[in-house]
């Protein structure tokens, strides 16, 4: 019996080993599955946060787009004008496009085009080449063109930097007035050549 006992004793050891290996594999699969689940959950949370941020950004962009309608541009014929330089003959060739608030303003600009072109030509011819060379000079010119266009359309527009109160015969300026909404929201330069 001792041989039979040894034979009977041996199979249970193999069964226990198999059982331990199977349990080990199952535990290993559970741990790996848990790790994969954790990674997937974290990715889903990150995607949800990104979608939430993107959703918030998209909502903000849509809100901003609704608040500012599609811009309407009115291109003007190119301007060529002699500049106010006394020491040399300089001229400027400038292409201008006006950005306006709505179609009604675009139509009004087209109706008043001769007066608008006149005011812009006078504004350009008062400048020297040095005044128009840097970015700041071009920015000031764009604002002046915006104001001159509004004046041609019949708007009362004050200069942005009036003279000191009472100086040079100018009456004191009160700052309590609300600025007038002008029909031209921006002036875009399509070309700017100074020679």
What does this protein structure show overall?
The termini are far apart. Helix 3 runs antiparallel to helix 5. The relative contact order is 0.12. This protein has 195 residues and is α+β, with helices and mostly antiparallel strands. Strands 1, 2, 3 and 4 form a four-stranded antiparallel β-sheet that branches.
- Unreliable sequence segments: 162-176
* Form type: elongated
Distance between the termini: 119 Å
Helix content: 55-70%
The number of helical elements comes to 5
CATH superfamily of the largest domain: Band 7 domain
From the helix content, strand content and strand pairing, which structural class follows? alpha+beta
Give the C-level CATH assignment of the largest domain.
Alpha Beta
Count of β-strands: 4
Report on the biggest sheet: 4 strands, antiparallel
Mean pLDDT: 80
> How does CATH name the architecture of the largest domain?
2-Layer Sandwich
Under CATH, the topology of the largest domain can be stated as Tetrahydropterin Synthase, Chain A
How many domain regions?
A: 2
Rg: 38 Å
SS strand fraction: 5-15%
H/E element sequence: HEEEHHHHE
């Amino acid at each position: 019996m001792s041989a039979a006992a040894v034979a009977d004793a041996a199979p249970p050891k193999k069964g226990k080993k198999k059982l331990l290996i199977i349990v080990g594999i199952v535990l290993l699969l559970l741990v790996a599955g848990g790790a994969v689940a954790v990674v997937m959950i974290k990715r889903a949370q990150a995607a949800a946060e990104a979608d939430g941020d993107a959703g918030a950004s998209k909502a903000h962009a849509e809100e901003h787009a609704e608040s500012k309608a599609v811009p309407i541009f009115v291109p003007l014929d190119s301007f060529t004008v002699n500049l106010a330089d006394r020491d040399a003959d300089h001229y400027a060739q400038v292409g201008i496009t006006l950005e306006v608030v709505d179609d009604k303003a675009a139509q009004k600009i087209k109706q008043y085009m001769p007066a608008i072109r006149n005011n812009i030509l006078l504004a350009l011819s008062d400048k020297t080449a040095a005044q128009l060379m840097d970015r700041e000079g071009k920015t000031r010119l764009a604002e002046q063109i915006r104001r001159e266009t509004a004046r041609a359309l019949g708007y009362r527009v004050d200069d942005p930097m009036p003279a000191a109160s009472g100086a040079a015969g100018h009456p004191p300026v009160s700052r309590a007035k609300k600025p007038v909404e002008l029909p031209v929201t921006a002036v875009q330069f399509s070309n700017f050549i100074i020679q």
